[in-house]
Amino acid sequence: MSTGGKNPQPQPPVRSGRGASLARKWVQQRHLQTMALLGVVWMIIFHYIPMYGILIAFKHFDIIGTISSAPWAGLEHFRAFLEDDNFWYIVKNTLGISLLKLAIGFPLPIVFALFLNEIRSTRFKKSIQTISYLPHFLSWVILGGILTTWLADTGMINQLLLAWGWIDQPISYLAEPSYFWAIVVSSDIWKELGWSAIIYLAAMAGVSTDMYEAATIDGAGRFQKMWYVTLPAIKGTISILFILAVSGILNSNFDQILVLRNSLNESASNVVDIYVYQVGIQQGRFSYSTAVGLLKSVLALILLLIANSVTKRVNNTSLF
Amino acid sequence: MQLLQRRTAGEAIFDFMNNVFMLIICFVTLYPVWYVLVNSFNEGADAMRGGIYWWPRVFSLGSYQAVFANNGIMTAMGVTIAKTLIGTIVHVFFTAMIAYAYSRKELIGRKLYMLIGTITLFFGGGLIPTYLLIRDLGLLDSFWVYIIPAMFSFFDLIIFMAFFRELPDALEEAAKIDGANDFGIFCRIVLPVSMPVVATIALFHGVYQWNDYFTGMIYINNTDLQPIQTYLYRVVAQSSSNQMMAAAPGGVAQSVTSQSIKLATMVVTTLPIVLVYPFLQKYFVKGLMIGSIKG
């Protein structure tokens, strides 16, 4: 998209000459530079200043003072979190919900895409796709409303179970910690199944039909074609998405849990992000909750690097 | 496909089972939404008895009348519409403009700019430092807190760039000869021919703006400035705890209940998205693919 000549001019050996031509070039593209720098300035304000703000995790920061004037605290806030009574069950909930989502929520869209790819009628296939990603566009607030309606004591699930005689008493699902993880994981799958399948379907569309014809001649059945042709063809896509899923593993869907949690299911619903929000925004303990958030980010980064190197070794694909 | 012979019995069974499997998934996806819709059109007090699965038993628009008569809901709806329209226009224009500058090979410092952006994909300040920044910028309790912190996204920039790179050079060269500057070329030539990717990003960001309740929850205290999703969040969170306190519905005389208003609000809040997205579907699938392959 360059506007100049195709071959770069040989650079003059004198440094000052090069600097002058660079400056002239810069003036020539001042409009372009202004546009680009607006973006840089925005990123510095909204991304890099908060990164600098992480310093308060190592300081005794209070609302009135500034970050630089606050006295240093060293690792005190980190130690306080590790010694907190809540520490273990917060870690357990964060990891438990995330691992369940990864173990169940990651492979299911692949299975769904594999079977959807086998649908012969294009129109039927299109309609299923349109329907399957509808929930992705609904907010967790709406889904929270649907779920609380369904799972209430007088809700549909209890009514059906009572009518069939499977239970004698209505169950308050959202008041029972033991049901919470299952509710979170299954509602997440319900929301994102179709949407997550889009990328796999796009990858499958690129598989050459020759491969399927060759497999047919060799006598492969439909399942065998899925297993030996389609699946290996989308291996690279699966790896990349797996790395991304692992790096997001500790973000156990703040929006979703905030909508579904309440004081009764707290022992199963309190995850790091919720804790940071409660302690930081609601109680105003800024330094402590920033330390907790930072600890999580560091762990997430380590997980990302592990996943990246594992898939690199197994599959020769990696993000970087 | 000439090679394929007649379908064998096994193939036919496979196809049949697969179709059934897909229909089940469609049903499971759609039915909860349908259930809310049907119950919202039923008279509230009657709906409390339950058992409404397929069609309203006592049809009533009472809940909707109550929703539209409620000033709080209508104000929140107005805020949401405003923040979605303004936020989407600003986000698309600003992100596309920067992406256009970034996509030009002759841009001095291009590598550095890209590095600055890529870092933001993987590292961030987290909730509290961001909150302090918003506070220091004076954006607390301001409508602009919905617009300015969301006006740019590096991920969307990558999608835009992938599209801009495919545009023919001749398009811009002609305008250059006519004496247009880079900003003019972007506004008058590049943006108009980039409608597929503009539609994709506009849909993504529009949905984000429409659905976001968190910004309204932590940065806004003034109820006149809260969006509908934040309003709904408060209703949903309240009613779920209320239901646990007083599970027995006995002796409700009103025909409109808090539950039926909640359902009607949910329908009103969701309708615009459900109406818009089938039309934009062909764009966003393409846009998502560009983003995933090149990103």
UniProtKB/TrEMBL annotation, chain A:
It comes from Paenibacillus polymyxa. The lineage of its organism: Bacteria, Bacillati, Bacillota, Bacilli, Bacillales. Residues 91-307 form the ABC transmembrane type-1 domain. It is found in: Cell membrane; Membrane. SUPFAM superfamilies: MetI-like. InterPro entries: MetI-like, MetI-like_sf. This is Sugar ABC transporter permease. Signal peptide: none annotated. Gene3D superfamilies: MetI-like.
UniProtKB/TrEMBL annotation, chain B:
The keyword Transmembrane applies. Residues 77-280 form the ABC transmembrane type-1 domain. One of its GO terms (biological process) is transmembrane transport. GO terms for cellular component: plasma membrane. It is a multi-pass membrane protein. It comes from the Bacteria. The keyword Nucleotidyltransferase does not apply. The chain crosses the membrane at residues 12-34, 73-100, 112-131, 143-164, 185-208, 261-280. SUPFAM superfamilies: MetI-like (SSF161098). It is found in: Cell membrane. Its main location: membrane. Keywords: Cell membrane, Membrane, Transmembrane, Transmembrane helix, Transport. Belongs to the binding-protein-dependent transport system permease family. PANTHER family: ABC TRANSPORTER PERMEASE PROTEIN MG189-RELATED-RELATED, POLYGALACTURONAN_RHAMNOGALACTURONAN TRANSPORT SYSTEM PERMEASE PROTEIN YTCP. This is Carbohydrate ABC transporter permease. It comes from Paenibacillus polymyxa.
